[in-house]
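Support request from a user on the community tier.

User writes: "When I paste my structure tokens into the form, the page sometimes reloads and wipes my input. The last time it worked, I copied everything first. Here is what I submitted, just in case something in the input itself triggers the reload:"
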């Protein structure tokens, strides 16, 4: 056979084989699944992100190796969430994680009725229409009810034990947060039961947080409870600094605040919640259906007291509170 005909046949064969390589590679190495992460907080919350990835790892997935994660952050601005959820759904993603309470969960639900959703919320998901029941969610959503917004009365009681002489206590609310009015009703009910007066303060933007603390100082309000809100969590450093500047005894919703210098916090183990949503996302990637995964509820609540901050405020922590504390920061 002439060389040129042989050469031409070999080239065609080689080209044909080369064209088949990508197909074979795709068959052997399918594209990695993608998780959409709709976060109300910010990417600076490295502890919670590490916990989420730990949950994925426990479920058999490592970000960048056998799963990809597309992140969207609202940084406490709830009006960003619907567009961010829609963007993730269009990717598309295999699972959509909504982390940060009712605003993110409702935005995710509105964006898709087919893609599995794993949520964290602080209110009753049945009442909100997210699931049919705790044990059998029944649709494309499941997750964790973290009770955050239902603990305001408990926090007020603990704060009152710290400053029993206070006739009035302030409560800082984020009016844009869907649970704000119920939070206020809970606090007012608890205050009436122990003969306390409540000063409701509202903040939706950074300047309003500053104004709220200026009001506390000018009206000589002895103590302040910061209500649960992802917006406040993303402004944690500012709030803790303002409480120190105005020398206000302040109760917070999560350990993160106390670690950053806040006086006292009572709430759930936040990193463990993020680990759990990572585990649920992994189970769904392996074939589990949200309809069959029960909505989880935390069993651990922690009271954290920062003694260094107490000393700076000239406070003597009652022995009863110290005995109740799960963690005392020296």
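"...and here is what came back when it finally went through:"
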């Amino acid at each position: 056979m002439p060389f040129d005909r042989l050469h031409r046949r070999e080239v065609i064969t080689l080209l044909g084989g080369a064209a088949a390589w990508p197909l074979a590679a795709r068959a052997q190495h399918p594209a990695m699944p993608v998780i959409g992460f709709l976060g109300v907080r910010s990417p600076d919350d490295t502890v919670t992100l590490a916990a989420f990835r730990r949950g994925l790892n426990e479920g058999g997935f490592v970000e960048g190796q056998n799963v990809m994660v597309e992140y969207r952050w609202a940084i406490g601005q709830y009006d960003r969430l619907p567009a961010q959820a829609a963007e993730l759904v269009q990717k598309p993603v295999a699972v959509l994680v909504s982390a940060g309470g009712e605003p993110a969960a409702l935005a995710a639900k509105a964006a898709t009725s087919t893609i599995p959703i794993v949520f964290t919320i602080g209110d009753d998901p049945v009442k909100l229409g997210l699931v049919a029941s705790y044990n059998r969610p029944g649709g494309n959503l499941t997750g964790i009810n973290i009770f955050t917004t239902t603990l305001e009365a408990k926090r007020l009681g603990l704060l009152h034990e710290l400053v029993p002489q206070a006739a009035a206590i302030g409560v800082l609310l984020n009016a844009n947060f869907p649970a704000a009015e119920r939070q206020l009703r809970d606090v007012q009910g608890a205050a009436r039961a122990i003969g306390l007066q409540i000063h409701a303060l509202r903040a939706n933007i950074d300047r309003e947080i500053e104004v709220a603390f200026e009001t506390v100082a000018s009206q000589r309000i002895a103590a302040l409870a910061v209500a649960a809100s992802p917006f406040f969590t993303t402004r944690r450093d500012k709030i803790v600094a303002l409480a120190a500047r105005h020398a206000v005894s302040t109760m917070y919703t999560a350990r993160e605040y106390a670690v950053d210098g806040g006086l006292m916090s009572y709430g759930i183990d936040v990193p463990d919640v993020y680990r759990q949503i990572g585990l649920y996302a992994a189970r769904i990637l392996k074939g589990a259906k949200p309809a069959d995964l029960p909505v989880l509820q935390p069993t651990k609540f922690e009271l954290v007291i920062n003694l260094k901050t107490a000393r700076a405020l000239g406070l003597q922590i009652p022995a009863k509170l110290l005995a109740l504390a799960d963690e005392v920061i020296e």
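Agent notes: The reload is a front-end session timeout and is unrelated to the input. Confidence is low (pLDDT under 50) at residues 1-29. The chain has two domains: 34-148+270-300, 149-267+302-329. Escalated to web team.
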